[in-house]
Amino acid sequence: MLIDVDTLPAGARVTRRTSRFWAPREGPISHLREALASDIVLLRGPTGVGKTSLLRQFALTLQDDTEIGVQLIDGNLTPPESIDRIAESFASGPSRHVLLVDNHVEGVGVSSEHLLQMLHADSELRIVVGTRYATGLESPLVALEFDVHVVPAARLRMTRDELALVLALNGVETTEAATDELAALGQLASARLRLEGLPLRTREEAIAVADYAGAALTSDMEQRLDIPITDEVRLLAVAPFINAALAEAMGIDSTTGSTAELLVHLQHAGLVWPSSTRLVLAEPIREQWLRDISARTPGVVTTARLSLLNHLVEAGEPLLAAQIAADAEQWQTLASVLRDSAPEIWARDADSFAHLVGRLRDSAPTDPLSIDVLLALDPDTALSPETPGLAVSALGRLPDAKTAAAASNLEALTLRISLLRAAGRFALATESASLLVDGLRRHRDAEPEASAEGWYQAGMTAFAMGRLRDAAQSLRQSERLASPAGRSRVRGALAVIALLDGDVRGASGIVGQNRDDNWTASPWGEGLRVATAWLQLEGGDPASARALLDQIPSTRGARELWPYAASIHALAFLLSGAASDSLGLLRVWAVRARSTPPSHYQSTQLLTARAKVLIALRQARKALALFEGPFSLSPATAPAIALSQLYAGRTHEAFVMSVKWGLHHEPAPRAALESLVVSVVADVRLNGVSAHRTAAQRAESLSIQHDLWSPWSAVAPEDRALVLQMLTPAARERVSERRSFFASSVSVPHLTKREQVVLAHLTPTSTIADIARVLVVSPNTVKTQLQSLYRKLEVSDRSSAIRAAHAWGLIEIETEA
């Protein structure tokens, strides 16, 4: 239903809407109908390409639809005060609304901001905009909130039959050959449809039009490549200058005419047309021009293309810059664009972003910048076992840390730190990070993006080494300077640090602050999603935590958070009734972590998670054996060692250790609470109802202060009743809500020592006689032990017994990937 469509401001464009010389555009009309599924549809093209006609025809095709109200306005002439009247007209009509805005010019008449306000106020509104210029509707921020469909210029080009009809309606004498040539020239022909004054009666004359324009542009541009460009004429591949002959042909006096005046005439003639940040030479003029100059002076074109990429990035067109770099196979340039503008490219077109990253990976780069970009953005590189080797090879191309620091080369230091961690060289990364922090403090005038990345790398290095306070301080410096996507990445790491410390309230604040941020769903928000899953686990909802972690098994931005994601993933399995699968899950994470060698601190986190799984499977002695060699007693391992001792039957040792590390070493809240919970259980086991309440009161206080209740899940079912008696009613209720690690492990097979020995020698190829010979027993004894094993493992053959024992963690498989 058309609403108010003929009440339009007077002007030349109104007359053109009803011109009989416009050809029907069935193809573009059909495309527009499909595009109405989006909130905003942009028709962008040069003067005369047919935007006005297309909008008018589209309005007329919708007039018979009684469920849609349609309004057509001239955005250049309609004042902002008319917005209320337009909204009232929509409100009094059908429930679905379509606003067609022709001749939209930012800053004149109805602006992009006005249109966005209308979309916010009317959820049933769809807006179709025809324009020659850049608009605020193309901002990545708008694209994150609304669906924006851009109809490419190619979809506006006329078909051969449409072109022939226009020529006939305008009385242009032509031939089939000339019409074919015009159709082949495409944009040049369709950019100016009023052709009465052009001699196009033969094929040669049509070719001459394009040849003259291309030759005139090429010869003069080639002479002026090293002359600075003007503000009006922007780079495409090299600077598009116009010579005097072409200016005079367009009706401009070359002695008095201005560049701006010439530009307007060129646009109306279809030789150039404006895009969001640049002027695009009409096809096929641009292709011919690039082809000629590239053949004569390829070096000049390469230099100009690099200038173009820098200009496009600065002007807000990083996607186009990245695509040009990829097409030209300039991989270092592509890596530079992705490093600086990957979030904007992802927000504009996630599929193109993935394609560009894939092309960079397939080019097999060896330069430090490209490898660092792939480590941050590419999941295949993050998972590849060749990654540490790539990082080492790239490090050889960078100056050493002291040389870079002496030269104040902060970018080289930042790259070096990132690659050193990827190669597993954490001591050298720490040394370089110290030099980088000094440099960042001395050079406070550095670019914000470079400083933000430098502080982030310094913070993540401290994080990997277990210096959580230093890490948080550096990451907060990065957060202050970072872009929105960078802030999401930083806040994810800060939330994980808070949860490692046990500050659940602080982590909840960080995650809650970013819950509605669109970047949380991006590759830069994966740390926040890991923290969200951890908070769900802390809140007593392991099923939701497990489901969320299952969705991000191959993170990119959270590559260095894998050890912590693995730990909480395993705990989510324990608490959601899948204890028997937890060891297998940890093995999968361990294989993944080999592509990014973990630090000693990160390995400790994986080790303590494995210990908790083994304890939950009633294999505490195996858990205790893990903490030998390099993973001996330390603030990070003390709670897990005490828990292993407790359930391995060494209650007194567990009590002494947990009291020592829970009360006297003043660890972080989580470590303190985990130790105190062990001491409470051990005291109850040793003294029953006469156990001291001091440790229980301190543990309860820590839980309430930090909203930290997950360590209470380490209490086994047999100890639960007595431990609950030690708590106040309020705390007793909170602890009762927590599931025990052991809840799903009551059916874990308990093997005798002799059965464990037989199981250890059981292989797919070993025979009963072989096992009997090794153990120096009779074959009948081995048969008896195997029958008992099969019964306890609930299997009937040797292969199934080996698989079941492996799933329960009773044996290790040497060929494990």
- Which class best fits the helix and strand makeup? mainly alpha
Overall pLDDT, averaged?
Answer: 77
Shape: elongated
**Number of helical stretches of at least 4 residues:** 44
The largest sheet is: 5 strands, parallel
- As a percent range, the share of strand residues is under 5%
**Tally of strands:** 7
What is the terminal separation in angstroms?
Answer: 65 Å
Gyration radius from CA atoms, angstroms = 35 Å
Helix content: 55-70%
Can you tell me the residue ranges where pLDDT is under 50 for at least 5 consecutive residues? 5-21, 186-203, 216-243, 272-285
Taking strands numbered 1, 2, ... along the chain, how are they ordered across the largest sheet?
Answer: 2-3-4-1-5
Give structural notes.
- With 817 residues, the protein is mainly alpha-helical.
- It is 60% helix and 4% strand.
- The protein has 44 helices and seven strands.
- The strands form two sheets. Strands 2-3-4-1-5 form a five-stranded parallel beta sheet, with helices on both faces. Strands 6-7 form a two-stranded antiparallel sheet.
- Strand 6 and strand 7 form a beta hairpin.
- The chain is elongated and about 105 Å long.
- It starts with 11 loop residues before the first helix and ends in a 10-residue tail after the last helix.
- About 9% of the residues have low confidence.
